[in-house]
Amino acid sequence: MSDVESIKAFGPARSTVQGAPLSAEEIKDYNDYFKASCYLALGMIYLKENPLLREPLKKEHLKARLLGHFGSAPGQIFTYMHFNRLIKKYDLDAYFVSGPGHGAPGLLSQSYLEGVYSEVYTNKSQDGEGLQKFFKYFSFPGGTGSHATPETPGSIHEGGELGYSISHAFGSVFDNPNLIALTMVGDGEAETGPLATSWHSNKFLNPITDGAVLPVLHLNGYKINNPTILARIPHKELENLFLGYGWQPYFVEGDEVESMHQAMAATLEHCVREIQSFQRKARTSGQAVRPRWPMIVLRSPKGWTGPRKVDDNYLAGFWRAHQVPITDPQKNPEHLKLLEAWLRSYEPDRLWDSEGRPDARFRRMCPDGNSRMTANPVANGGLLKKPLRMPQFTDYALAVERSGGVKAASMSNMAQFLRDVMAMNMHNFRLFGPDETESNKLGAVYEAGKKVWMGEYFEEDANGGNLAPAGRVMEMLSEHTCEGWLEGYVLSGRHGLLNSYEPFIHVIDSMVNQHCKWIEKCLEVGWRAQVASLNILLTAVVWRQDHNGFTHQDPGFLDVVANKSPKVVRIYLPPDGNCLLSVMDHCLRSANYVNVVVADKQEHLQYLDMDAAVQHCTKGIGIWPQFSTDAGYDPDLVMASCGDVSTHESLAAVDLLLQHFPELKIRVVNCVDLFKLIHPIDHPHGLSDREWIALFTDDTPVVFNFHSYPWMVHRLTYKRPGARNIHVRGYKEKGNIDTPLELAIRNQTDRFSLAIDAIDRIPHLKNKGSAARQTLLNDQIVARTEAFETGMDPPRLTEWVWPEGGLLSKISQAAEGKMPVRTK
């Protein structure tokens, strides 16, 4: 056989595994089941009325707008139905992940035939009336989408954006030792970067503690309008590709249905027995070795079972079968006849009875109860979710004897809390991240659970490698795969946290976007139980990426998250260590959110003892009286901040202002919960206007130092009273290999720029502030020059703390004319 012939999907079955597990009668049953399933998949796309063609097909029976994708459905159906036999034979715990884009017809047809769909949606019963509604509401307003959306029973993976089926599947089987995720990978999907990296997930699967993923790469040859790469490379090259990934590929290829039934049945059974053998050996011996897990390459025609040609154009086995195969049956009578003949070729008159009930054999071919793959509780993970056992976060409090007067490592301290969360939840909590756990100062977690590693070990790994087969930390330098693992883990009923450098979290912008849409839609689906929140910890923040340069300076992930539905997203920027503890405790306990926490990993000033931190985080935003001078007065200025580095510079600016103008009435406001800024009609966390005015007034200049891009605050606050008075400083896309101070100066977020801005905006200072303004500008130039010449910021600035004695001392000295002389 030539290379070209070997990669075509036509002819009798060609398979790696030989065998004939099915009897002649079983083949007949499976062929009928296959026909009925393909009829359902095609009917969903076209039929609004006359669901079983009990009268001649008319254009009035068709949907006015034809939507859906048929091309991958037959291959998915074929795989699903043959796995049902193995679930029954071996009492398997399994569910199906539909990776091909718009692959829902394949999964929905199975849910309907096994009875789950009618149990969930009782008006879509297994009779003529129910089938008519089942067809009508596919890709129809108020119905189910053409992806495996949250409305689809048995789905944790929508396939709206391609590339995540394998990583989601692996996430679901970690710590789920009896589960098999049968995962259909579209050959178009297989061309994406996330899917390519996710094949390496097999290096992290522990056969003792985890379940298994059985991938089925579906080579149907075409995307929307192009051949797929993996379908057009020689057989040996394809085999070597997956051998190189560490899998054992088994091939099933062809389109002659009877021989394909035997080949697929034999191959799937071989894979299941191999998985069970690997797990049994590891669990009996206690040795967590990495086997060569099985996977299947299924090569079948796109739009299998459809007509080979329509007019003079190829259809089945070609890209025209990808979406709606016959596009104009409402307008073209000949095409309407062809569609009717195609639908009738599946023999609906024989396979459904006079009342529209499917053949009773089909239900007997399916498993029962929760063993049906679309009824498996793992695909409705909130049903399985157990609350985390949590240590008391206040026990990890940092001592703050003087607000703004002591420094500590907030992240390293929080890591001890995270370590104990992990230790108390060793079977349902994992930490995920792209090779940055140690760098992000979270290394304390290794005391509870090391990094999962199923690869080879070197002697030097014992010296700080923190590697173990039964670890709890998942690290791989692919943000896509780590995020996919976490999503699969959470969606199947567990808890987790992803930590990442802030600048590179953009790699998974669209993944988080998809997850936000998923959990928002789940809120509208009554039978979906709430899952644990997806928690993302961002560190190595923009203001401390001075040494890495401009490429590492981007805080814009917050803009991406803020665009999502207020029902499902939260953003927190704790200013110090005790606030970080309070926020993390809250996020880990929450459900059905995407929580983003931004906190730097370096040492920082500490402001609030634990009691004050809990109060501040509970409010989400508030006045800090220990740094304010306006008690009982109308403020001259509101100095606001959001973010740990931003808060530090804001307070240093207040100190500078009070050195020059001790009589100033300054109100210091700090924001932890970013969505406190937004109007309450747009987000449930938003302050009322009365609360807003109590903090910011409606007639006072506000200098707001913000962690991210400044226009984000303007966007959130544009409806607020006095919005015209808000002047935001933040990252302006100015960066280089700078010191922290130089980077802040470039973006006007440093203490000098903030103090100068305040002077310019306080009306009564006017010319009175000119001398101070010049002095501050001179000081800024001196500091910047010193940083440029020495490569380090001046210690007098980096070591700045809030003055000993605080504001009372300073105000009292000012009243007595004894303010200390300023020194450089």
UniProtKB/TrEMBL annotation:
Biological processes per GO annotation: carbohydrate metabolic process
In terms of Gene3D superfamilies, this protein maps to: 3.40.50.920, 3.40.50.970
Listed cofactors: thiamine diphosphate
**Domain Xylulose 5-phosphate/Fructose 6-phosphate phosphoketolase C-terminal: where?**
601-802
Task: Report the domain of life of the source organism.
Answer: Eukaryota
**GO MF term list:** aldehyde-lyase activity
Keyword ATP-binding belongs to the record: no
Keywords assigned:
Lyase, Thiamine pyrophosphate
Any Pfam family? XFP
- The Xylulose 5-phosphate/Fructose 6-phosphate phosphoketolase N-terminal domain covers 23-383
UniProt record similarity statement = Belongs to the XFP family.
Q: Per its record, how is this protein called by name?
A: Phosphoketolase
Q: What is the lineage of its organism?
A: Eukaryota, Fungi, Dikarya, Ascomycota, Pezizomycotina
